[in-house]
Write a structure and sequence with these properties.
Elements lengths: L4 H31 L9 H22 L5 H20 L8 H30 L1 H6 L2
Helix pairs in contact: 1-2, 1-4, 2-4, 3-4
């Protein structure tokens, strides 16, 4: 079935977002279980599901548009590498609470979520150009 670049980009972004959400939920459960970290006001099941899927919906749309440019894939990867590095940098400075132990645990949890979503974002161009992905998934 032939699809436009826009719809293919959108669907690829939604798929990558769904995969990132599932992996982030698993990481969240594992991290909380192994560390005993209990603060859940910011990073919790609901926020992970809603935020990641919403962000990836927009990233998929953005990729659908950027991909129409001659060097769109390169632009997309460079742009999101910069955003990922910026997010990692800002994660290191987050102050969630006055308790240093809880701050460290929150940063580790947040860093894992940032890295998982970053890898998923960078997988979008690879998935977009994969014939097997197009045939079997979208």
């Amino acid at each position: 079935m032939l699809q436009s670049r826009f719809s293919k980009g959108l669907l690829t972004g939604v798929f990558a977002g769904f995969a990132a959400t599932v992996i982030c939920l698993i990481y969240n459960a594992w991290y909380r279980g192994s560390s005993g970290f209990q603060l859940s006001g910011i990073i919790n099941v609901s926020s992970l599901i809603f935020a990641i899927n919403t962000v990836f919906l927009f990233i998929g749309v953005l990729y659908g548009f950027i991909n129409t440019l001659k060097k769109g894939d390169i632009l997309f990867v460079i742009l999101f590498l910069l955003i990922i590095v910026f997010c990692i940098w800002k994660t290191e400075g987050v102050q969630r609470t006055d308790n240093q132990q809880l701050n460290t645990e929150f940063r580790q949890l947040l860093l894992g979520v940032v890295l998982i979503t970053g890898i998923a974002v960078l997988s979008i161009p690879v998935l977009f150009h994969s014939k097997k992905f197009e045939e079997h998934v979208i």
